[in-house]
Design a protein that fits this description.
By secondary structure, this protein is an alpha+beta fold. The chain has helices at residues 7-16, 47-54, 71-79, 83-96, 100-104, 145-162, 273-279, 292-299, 317-329, 360-372; strands at residues 24-29, 35-39, 42-45, 67-70, 106-113, 116-128, 131-142, 163-169, 174-179, 187-191, 196-201, 213-219, 234-240, 243-252, 303-313, 339-342, 348-357, 376-379. Among the domains are: 7-163, Beta-Lactamase (2-Layer Sandwich); 301-380, 2-Layer Sandwich (Alpha-Beta Plaits).
Length: 380
């Protein structure tokens, strides 16, 4: 998600750039990797700046080239640098410079040529309790190095004043479950491998109670044992006011070993291959290995008795609305299979339903409808 430039920030940028003719500016949050501000669609990367950047850890695998490029694409390339590499750079910068001000504004790369001065800067703002807020600024087109540093400093300082981060999911926190075929367990808990952080304006309050806040879990289907804890099994997306702020991969909380030679799908107890296919299970050969001919029709669709969990505020209209929505997407939807569970406080209601999905498109369309529904807080 990219925020629009505020009148205040625009005024500050113009003031800082009044003597430097800044041609392009971008602001990115290194904690959430969101692009917060973008001024100027194109920028020109000079040879000296490209040389400096490509010497930065994390750039060697996909170096930047001198010449004209899209500003947003350039910032996205910087966002691809791993968090470990940014931490190492900032740690070294702090160790090399004893002045607090210098530690808070560290140039990643900066170069002046006959067409102007350009630079990339990182700023770290201590928040207390060992927490920090990290921002990255891209500033192109200043007249001198002094005005370049000044413009970047003002840009970053205003960024810290205007934006804050919020953690919506903790590292290892359960975000849902997904069925597992051929495994010792019938399903597995899905978790993230990082704190899911989003950036919002300080004037905003991010509340999971808000109708504007939604989480959408897209699960890989089917998941076939053995399952490790390092392979992504889906994607969790965080939405606010109809815009996706952040998407992160999700993983199995614990590995799932391969089960018995007779494959069983989640919630089923069939033994013959024909019934396996109808129930969405994986037929096995004598060697207990999936065969290409067997997997083609079963691994894709139909997926029968596919579990979906929907959460929203506890109100009588909620189950009725979801039943009607499911019936509109699945002609054979059985309203009697819906189960409900209240949260500890009684504020939220979790609905569990089973659907028979005939195609990926049908399932995706239903998830889109769920995400867009005003009563739905989370769809898993």
């Amino acid at each position: 998600m990219r925020f629009s430039t505020s009148p205040l920030l625009s005024a500050v940028m113009l003031c800082a750039a009044s003597q430097s003719a800044v041609g392009a500016m971008a602001l990115m949050d290194l904690d959430s990797r969101q692009i917060l501000q973008l001024e100027g669609n194109l920028l020109f990367i000079t040879e000296p700046l490209a040389e400096q950047l490509n010497g930065f850890p994390g750039m060697a695998d996909k170096p930047v080239k001198a010449g004209e490029t899209a500003t947003e694409a350039f910032v996205a390339r910087l966002a691809a640098i791993s968090d470990e590499q940014w931490k190492a750079f900032l740690s070294k910068t702090a160790a090399d410079d004893e002045q607090e001000a210098a530690r808070r504004l560290a140039p990643v790369a900066a170069a002046c040529t006959d067409i102007g001065c350009d630079g990339i800067y990182v700023s770290v703002n201590p928040l207390g309790n060992g927490e920090t807020h990290r921002l990255l600024a891209v500033v192109f087109g200043s007249d001198t190095r002094e005005t370049l540093d000044r413009a970047a400093g003002v840009f970053l300082r205003e960024g810290h004043l205007r934006y804050k981060t919020a953690t919506v999911i903790r590292n290892g926190e359960a975000v849902g479950r997904t069925p597992v075929f051929k495994g010792e367990a019938q399903d597995v808990t899905l978790v993230t491998h990082e704190n899911v952080v989003v950036t919002i304006a300080k004037t905003m309050t991010l509340s999971k109670d808000s109708e504007a806040f939604k989480m959408h879990l897209t699960r890989q289907q089917p998941v076939i044992a053995p399952v490790d804890a390092e392979t992504p099994l889906g994607t969790l997306s965080i939405w606010l006011n109809g815009k996706c702020l952040r998407s992160v991969p999700v993983y199995a909380k614990e590995p799932v070993k391969e089960g018995s030679p007779v494959a069983k799908g989640p919630g089923h107890d069939h033994t013959d291959n024909d019934r396996h296919q109808r129930s969405g299970e994986i037929p096995m050969n004598d060697n207990s290995k999936p065969q290409p001919d067997d997997l083609t029709p079963v691994m894709v669709f139909p997926m029968l008795n596919f579990p979906i969990k929907i959460m929203g505020l506890n109100q009588p209209e909620f189950p009725v609305a979801i039943s009607e929505l499911a019936s509109g997407h699945f002609a054979d939807f059985d309203k009697g299979t819906m189960t409900t569970a209240l949260s500890k406080t009684g504020k939220y209601l979790a609905l569990s339903i089973m659907v028979n999905a005939q195609s990926q498109e049908q399932l995706d369309n239903f998830y889109r409808a769920l995400t867009a529904h005003p009563m739905v807080k989370v769809a898993l």
